[in-house]
Amino acid sequence: MHNPRYCLVSGMYAVAVCQDVDGLYGDPAPPPRAVHELRGCEPRGDLARAVTQAVVEGSAPFGRLHVQTHDGLAWFFEEVRVLGARGDVVTVESSGPPRRAYGGHGALPCAHLVPVAPEPLGRTHTEVTFLGCSPRGGLRDALAAGQVEFEAVRYQVLSWVGSVHHEAEAGRVTGWGTSARHHDLVDLTVAFPRAGLIPHQSREVWDLWHRDRPAEPGTWRRFTGAARGEWLKQAARRSYGAPEITPGATYHLHGADVVDEDSFLCALGEAVHGPGRSLGVGAPRAIGEQLAGTTLVWHRADVARACLGVLPYADRRPATFQEFVDGFRDAGVRLVLD
């Protein structure tokens, strides 16, 4: 098969290469929350108040919950919501399974933690069909043997030359049949987690990068949110062969659309190396060191001054406008704010 778009992987080995996919792209559902019964517990303090609120209102937010069971093991539940209580049993949901805590000081004593039955498969998974597939290895053997299902696999989104744009868990292969669109190939159905669906904009990014980097200036501007981050990742991976940065050179950064760190890095990479290229990511000083000895004219810097570093964040605080300015100047960049 020439230039497949997708690959299914089991362990270390590819078990199918495929021409297309149906059902992979859509709005991802939030991951299912774990529900547990805390049995043999006596709620107190904030938890007692949350239980009372849950009884009246149906549920109550709580945050992190630290529990120690009768066997001496301690556990943390994150992003907890109390769902109710009956007798000495408190029912809570959390962002995922509890994780081990090292030490039970201040923990709520409980006899047992009992997971409640997970949501039905139909609410957490959907069918994704990989179209026009050529099976190999264990999957080919399973098809030849007439097996009904195959083990869980991962999937890869491929570029024209076979490099991997993206890889993630898929699920169990639950069915297969002769492909209606692709001669002598098969279609493979996978029980796919709804939380793992890919936004349509990400597919647009991968399609643009499928053969080569986009050559039209400013193409990154059409994407927002996670898709812009995906653009930046592809640009960073495809920046080989970029023109060398020359000390004494002057570069012009057009900042009208620089509203967050990703858009700044997209615009900067284009200003220095051309469309579809990137200087990579890092601290302001580290990025500035790549431009040491050059002049950077930052047009419409007022937009970034108002926006950089002020948006909400989940994992880390993004760098502010002033931190980029200071980092670049400390690294030896002559920065002109226009």
Mean pLDDT: 91
Report how far the terminal alpha carbons are from each other: 53 Å
* Residues in helix, %: 10-25%
Number of helices: 9
Gyration radius, to the nearest Å? Answer: 26 Å
Order of helices and strands: EEEHEEEEEEHEHEEEHHEHHEHHE
Shape designation? flat
Fraction of residues in β-strands:
25-35%
Question: Structural class per helix/strand content?
Answer: alpha+beta
Task: Extract low-pLDDT stretches.
Answer: none
Largest sheet, strands/sense/barrel: 7 strands, mixed
Total E-strand runs: 16
Structural description of this entry:
By secondary structure, the chain is α+β, with helices and mostly antiparallel strands. The chain contains 9 helices and 16 strands. The chain has helices spanning 45-57, 121-124, 137-144, 200-208, 225-237, 261-273, 284-290, 301-307, 321-330; strands spanning 6-10, 13-22, 34-39, 60-68, 74-86, 89-94, 99-101, 108-109, 112-115, 125-135, 150-158, 164-178, 186-193, 250-254, 295-299, 334-337. Strands 3, 4, 5, 6, 7, 8 and 9 form a 7-stranded mixed sheet that branches. Strands 1-2-10-13-12-11 form a 6-stranded antiparallel beta barrel. A hairpin with a 5-residue loop joins strand 4 and strand 5 (74-86). The mean pLDDT is 91.
Short description:
With 338 residues, this protein is an alpha+beta fold.
Features:
seven-stranded mixed sheet, 9 helices, 16 strands, alpha+beta, single chain, 338 residues, six-stranded antiparallel barrel, 34% strand, 25% helix
